[in-house]
Amino acid sequence: xxxxxxxxxxxxxxxxxxxxxxxxxxxxxxxxxxxxxxxxxxxxxxxxxxxxxxxxxxxxxxxxxxxxxxxxxxxxxxxxxxxxxxxxxxxxxxxxxxxxxxxxxxxxxxxxxxxxxxxxxxxxxxxxxxxxxxxxxxxxxxxxxxxxxxxxxxxxxxxxxxxxxxxxxxxxxxxxxxxxxxxxxxxxxxxxxxxxxxxxxxxxxxxxxxxxxxxxxxxxxxxxxxxxxxxxxxxxxxxxxxxxxxxxxxxxxxxxxxxxxxxxxxxxxxxxxx
Amino acid sequence: xxxxxxxxxxxxxxxxxxxxxxxxxxxxxxxxxxxxxxxxxxxxxxxxxxxxxxxxxxxxxxxxxxxxxxxxxxxxxxxxxxxxxxxxxxxxxxxxxxxxxxxxxxxxxxxxxxxxxxxxxxxxxxxxxxxxxxxxxxxxxxxxxxxxxxxxxxxxxxxxxxxxxxxxxxxxxxxxxxxxxxxxxxxxxxxxxxxxxxxxxxxxxxxxxxxxxxxxxxxxxxxxxxxxxxxxxxxxxxxxxxxxxxxxxxxxxxxxxxxxxxxxxxxxxxxxxxxxxxxxxxxxxxxxxxxxxxxxxxxxxxxxxxxxxxxxxxxxxxxxxxxxxxxxxxxxxxxxxxxxxxxxxxxxxxxxxxxxxxxxxxxxxxxxxxxxxxxxxxxxxxxxxxxxxxxxxxxxxxxxxxxxxxxxxxxxxxxxxxxxxxxxxxxxxxxxxxxxxxxxxxxxxxxxxxxxxxxxxxxxxxxxxxxxxxxxxxxxxxxxxxxxxxxxxxxxxxxxxxxxxxxxxxxxxxxxxxxxxxxxxxxxxxxxxxxxxxxxxxxxxxxxxxxxxxxxxxxxxxxxxxxxxxxxxxxxxxxxxxxxxxxxxxxxxxxxxxxxxxxxxxxxxxxxxxxxxxxxxxxxxxxxxxxxxxxxxxxxxxxxxxxxxxxxxxxxxxxxxxxxxxxxxxxxxxxxxxxxxxxxxxxxxxxxxxxxxxxxxxxxxxxxxxxxxxxxxxxxxxxxxxxxxxxxxxxxxxxxxxxxxxxxxx
Lengths: 274, 746
Prior knowledge:
The complex is a heterodimer. Chain A is mainly alpha-helical.
């Protein structure tokens, strides 16, 4: 590795980290990932106008998607970002799922919210451009080793989430209030399933993504227990099941996806930087 | 089966061990009881029919054995009173006749076995006790006693089946005592210890003691005392019991799925009758399987039937559950009620899952019924341990196939190999069921045989674990088969060697005897005569010198003849020409002698005869035995042609086949004569030879040297004799390369 390439790599790393922090903060604050995430327990935190009572669980879903899954995945990449291209893959595809769901279920709202498409496109392009190992994001050199247990757990999640996803899609399609609430719940389900698949590949970064999923399930379970009868809620039993699932999923990730040796990870980074 | 433990006793000893009188009494008592039960049933059949026809439809019909239909239901079915009564009576008679038929069959086929008597009483009475209790109310306690006797007979049957022996005395008497105590207690309802007054915990305790003891007794008998046939008998009975009881549970529970109040609600009487009949039909499985177990000397293997029953039972349940679950789940996902599309999707899912589900269930059930596949390492260890024991080659192969069969629970395993040019099964265990699957046995890169195995059932395929174990065992079996084959080859060679050695000794002794005979019978008298002639000549020298001169002339002539005789003997041992001229020269000389002989006899003009010799210019130094053998074969064949073939041409060819490390001397004598007639092959013995051709000796000479000799018709008529004499490695040196034709008689 020559000096100029090394220098370029360092600058890219700095730039990526800066943007990651910026977009994570924007997700948590500007897009209200944090305030809506706390909505089941703290009403209208950091909000100028309180949310409607009926969308409190939807707000929790927004918090899980934007706050936990998207923003936290960017924060998780601050340490050794080049060793976690899987997280950036998830971040980019997750946003695309979100936008696709919006377009498919509520085209009128999608048209009206065109700026969201532009905003997300800019964010994704910037992150993609500043990432040092772009090639590894969608065409990873590391072979996937499918973890059967995690894949089975994802299959169970698919069975459990399918009713909520389908319901979210149907409700959003019939929603005339021009709010992407039901659809966001469906997008959350789809994003969680995609995250489950990525985690099951056992590639570098799967461990961090697995923990994020476990946290998201446990969070959604807790929100469901708090708001069992609210629209979109997973209910009492669904909440309990989601918490149990989150704990089991986290434990399986911890046990079966052992952290990679630092030297190997570093070696991988070096190779990619060259 | 181990007999002789203190607790083990013969409740019903084998025939001949109990005094005949007591056996006879017991037998007649059993027959009487059977007859009594049948009589009590049949006697009341007419009155039962009349009761059903005249009274039942108008009343509660408490004496009906089957669930009575209300009169509206009877009318809706279009039945008259008589038809209704006939239907109910007919059903009772049908079920009775099945039980009775099995009992009669058992008594007829096994009339002298006490277990048959108990089984007959139990079978004959079990079905009709309810009938007797309801129809013979007038008998009072006697009817109850007959019902109790029936129950006791059934318990005794369960405790003693199949061989009539008590495996644990205390268990037998505990169960029997418990049954008797409860039955007796029923006869004293007013007493504080009457069965009606027993608290629930006591009744439960009684049930646990009775049924627990029976169950435990059966387990002990099955695991410790039953041989293979008895285990099969037990399996049949247990199979019948379980199948009938599971069926009854299913039939009883199924209506509750449609209506939770099925049994308490009215309006289901017709269905209840159907259920009653279904239950009775399911109960028939018990006498049928019991009859099979007692009557068949060689029982059909019940395991495949159990296996199939469980597989299809579980599969059916799983498919129904899967279908219901799929439809329910899809209705939740799409937030719709059950509809046609969801049903089709559910059916599609079931169709998709059917084959893998069946295969998986089959594997699990196989593991339950036949046991799981053994651990490969323990199997190999077991095989190694067994092979350590001193065994003959046949036994070794038997051990291998037995290990394969036992470790995979297969019905059949065999090893097939090619031995002495023939494919045959070297070892086999079990019975073939279906087409065997062949696994090649390879050792050192060569296929040394095939391991043949049959799947556990025709429909079942081997799983990955089975194949893994089979491949592992086949690899080991390949080495074993090669060793066994080599061992058998060595034994065969040893046999051949001994035989050859005997033949050599025999030939040497024969030759010695022949030489002794020649010396003793021919040379010795000649020498004695010479001595006498020389003595006479010495005497006559003084008396009459002329006479002496005559004698000496005769003496000289005799000496010449004796020398010729000795030369003849030496020639027989080894022709001198071979030493002087070599094989080809000696053959040439012989051909020349034949030609001269024919010229002397003046035969050339009338019967022209030509001999063609094709041979290399020179041959390597051949082993003496081969050289002599070749010379004898050629000259003898030539003489045969001259004497018997009436041929005009005889071709003789001597050639040398050379291979990398061995070779052979090939001899050919072919003529265009009259041939061997219609015979395709040469005669098997000299006696059979046509015209004393001595063809047998040609073949014998070739075989003595480890070679072969073909004697048969030539391609264009005549006779063709072709001998091949093998040469060992290292014997072919300095052979000539140019072949030349030598013609005689042109």
